[in-house]
Amino acid sequence: MKFYLYAPVENGQRNYQLEQKLSNLEQLFGMPFWSEISTGYIDLSNKVTREGIALLTAVMYLRNPSFFNRTAEIYQHLRSFYMAAGEPPDRVEIGGRKYDVDKASWPAYRDAGEDDVKRMWLDN
């Protein structure tokens, strides 16, 4: 079990902003809407209903702690890869497009702690 998964430390204090947003979303989809979604028939011809269900589904899927673990693994992989190379390159190619790399943030990324990785995950 991970504590404070959605509340990383910032400036020595826990930031509960995302926790509050998730709570507000859960309240928005509270009764009777939730029981209709989970046990009833939903009329998907209503655009607002479709958008609401899509939002709820995406948030519930992405907030799963396994995604945090995945973000931490990707972070460790990238960190190890670029530490072995000495530093990040000046440019990278992604999907056929070339991007300049801002190396100024490399020390902060390289030295990120668990709360920093949580913020990366939450920002996504």
Model description:
The model has no long low-confidence stretch (mean pLDDT 84). With 124 residues, this protein is mainly α. The protein has helices at 17-28, 33-39, 47-62, 65-85, 106-110, 114-123; strands at residues 9-10, 13-14, 91-94, 97-100. α4 crosses α6. β3 (91-94) and β4 (97-100) form a beta hairpin. The longest helix is centred in the middle third of the chain and has 21 residues, at 65-85. The protein starts with 8 loop residues before the first strand and ends with a helix.
In short:
The chain is mainly α and 124 residues long. The chain has helices at residues 17-28, 33-39, 47-62, 65-85, 106-110, 114-123; strands at 9-10, 13-14, 91-94, 97-100.
Could you name the key traits of this structure?
two-stranded antiparallel sheet; mainly alpha; 124 residues
* Widest beta sheet: strand line-up: 1-2
Shape: elongated
Structural classification: mainly alpha
List segments where confidence is low: pLDDT < 50 over at least 5 consecutive residues. Answer: none
Rg over CA atoms: 19 Å
H and E order: EEHHHHEEHH
How many individual β-strands?
4
Describe the sheet with the most strands.
2 strands, antiparallel
Contiguous helical run count: 6
Head-to-tail CA distance between termini: 22 Å
Mean pLDDT, nearest integer? 84
Query: How much of the sequence is in beta strands?
Result: 5-15%
Task: Record the SSE blueprint.
Elements: E1 9-10, E2 13-14, H1 17-28, H2 33-39, H3 47-62, H4 65-85, E3 91-94, E4 97-100, H5 106-110, H6 114-123
Antiparallel strand pairs: 1-2, 3-4
Helix pairs in contact: 4-6
